């Protein structure tokens, strides 16, 4: 796990096997490493008209390979929603492949979505993309892009989630019903994270003292359950449900605040390419980026198909990661309830990257990363990290 990127769930899976009651959803006849096809229905599909906006066959690779930063989960729903009926699962490579279907239209190419985390040795997505040039698209957090900018530059082309679902969580009883991070941390209790970016951010704002920072979080629930005075990283789209519904040794609500509300304003997992591919793959990206914009909107409108794929392939991969139908449904609903996915406020266009926001992210996090030794220089041009040229400005959630 690359600590500065603060992926808070990287190592919780083993404990959840013992502590959680998970009910996976089985799909009859789904794909496996032997190449069997899924018989679950994704709805009626038609073939893209030759040369139309959704015909990718002449401009994109025969298989569009996309790399996720972690194991399958509903936060990746937009990407998985493009995997059409008849998908196959490679349990060795931890990938799923099927026709790339957008809004009921077969685009004429295949999509392969690869799992991250243990499948890639926990290395950051930019590193994986530069090691394997078959990967066209990666889900690259803005802080990951900053960390990789010098040697493995990536360019974000459209957002998926607009706001990070990362949280700090606490036990309401132990923290006297605290509603904010500042209130929960005011008595000096440990703030347990997987990396140093978040505590450094909170220290810079005077919310915590340096001595409260504890970087020992491995993603498992044991410490929180046995030491409920701590504050701990999590996701608003997962931990509140899991701790109350699936961890029998806890079984009650948690308190939390979104880190985005206290300055963690990165773009979470925007769709990115290697910097060189912005020009090299421009003909493909001109059609593919609008498909990715629409995919997230379509997923939230009807998450069932993608969630069934996610739960199915997690069960097949057998990595120790567990993911239930209930968590998937909760995550999709929470993304809407907390407005984690919305149009760009300035342009009204879904998926467009805001240059001023990107500038602020770089100004906030590059110095933190330089001080931590993650990067050698904090002189990073925010405009090098994104490109809106392929955005379809007619696409909106309204």
From TrEMBL:
Family annotation (PROSITE patterns): PROKAR_LIPOPROTEIN (PS51257)
Keyword terms: Signal
Signal peptide region: 1-28
A single GO BP: thiamine biosynthetic process
Family matches, as InterPro entries: NMT1/THI5
Domain of life of the organism encoding this protein: Bacteria
Protein name: Nitrate ABC transporter substrate-binding protein
UniProt source species: Nocardioides luteus
């Amino acid at each position: 796990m690359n600590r500065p990127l603060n992926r808070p769930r990287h190592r919780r899976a083993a404990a959840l096997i013992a502590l959680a009651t998970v009910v996976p959803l089985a799909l009859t006849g789904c794909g496996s490493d032997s190449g069997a096809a899924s018989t679950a229905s994704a709805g009626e599909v038609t073939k893209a008209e030759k040369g139309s906006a959704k015909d990718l066959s002449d401009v994109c690779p025969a298989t569009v390979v996309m790399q996720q930063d972690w194991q399958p989960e509903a936060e990746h729903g937009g990407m998985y929603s493009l995997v059409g009926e008849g998908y196959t699962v490679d349990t060795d490579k931890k990938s799923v492949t099927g026709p790339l279907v957008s809004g009921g239209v077969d685009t004429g190419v295949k999509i392969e979505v690869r799992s991250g985390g243990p499948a890639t040795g926990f290395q950051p997505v930019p590193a994986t993309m530069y090691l394997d040039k078959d990967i066209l698209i990666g889900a690259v957090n803005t802080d990951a892009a900053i960390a990789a900018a010098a040697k493995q530059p990536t360019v974000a082309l459209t957002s998926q989630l607009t706001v990070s679902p990362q949280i700090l969580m606490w036990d309401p009883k132990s923290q006297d019903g605290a509603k904010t991070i500042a209130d929960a941390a005011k008595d000096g209790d440990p703030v347990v994270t997987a990396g140093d970016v978040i505590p450094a951010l909170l220290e810079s704002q005077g919310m915590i003292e340096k001595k409260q920072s504890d970087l020992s979080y491995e993603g498992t629930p044991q410490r929180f359950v046995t030491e409920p005075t701590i504050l701990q990283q999590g996701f608003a789209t997962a931990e509140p449900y899991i701790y109350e519904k699936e961890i029998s040794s806890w079984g009650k609500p948690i308190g939390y605040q979104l880190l985005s509300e206290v300055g963690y304003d990165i773009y979470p997992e925007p769709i990115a390419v290697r910097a060189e591919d912005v020009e090299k793959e421009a003909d493909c990206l001109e059609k593919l980026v609008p498909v990715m914009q629409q995919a997230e909107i379509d997923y939230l409108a009807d998450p069932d198909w993608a969630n069934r794929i996610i739960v199915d392939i997690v069960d097949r991969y057998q990595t120790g990661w567990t993911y239930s139908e209930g968590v998937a449904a909760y995550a999709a609903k929470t993304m809407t309830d907390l407005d984690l996915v919305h149009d760009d406020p300035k342009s009204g266009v879904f998926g467009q990257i805001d240059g001023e926001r990107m500038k602020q992210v770089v100004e906030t996090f590059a110095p933190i990363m330089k001080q931590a030794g993650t990067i050698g220089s904090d002189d990073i041009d925010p405009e090098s990290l994104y490109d809106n040229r392929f955005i379809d400005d007619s696409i909106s959630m309204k």
